[in-house]
Amino acid sequence: MSRPGTLGAxxxxxxxxxxxxxxxxxxxxxVLDVVELSGLTQAKIDPxxxxxxxxxxxQKISGxxxxxxxxxxxxAPG
Length: 78
What we know:
By secondary structure, the protein is mostly beta strands. It has strands at residues 9-12, 27-30, 40-45, 61-67. The strands form 2 sheets. The chain has a two-stranded antiparallel sheet. It has a two-stranded antiparallel sheet with strand order 3-4. It has no helices and 4 strands. It has one domain (4-67). Helix content is 0%, strand content 27%.
């Protein structure tokens, strides 16, 4: 039985400007296991609007993303 979730890599590139929109990556790291994403967070911001009707709901605004993620790699020889 194969484990396709463990086959893959993590690719990243340092941003040269804040919020730049690119789809290219400079570095690729092979991983040994599934990337653990449970430490990622995204705040929800209350918009603070007034409501016209009683019990009228409001959608929260997606805030900044943050947090950490964990990966497992082979130890490279020094």
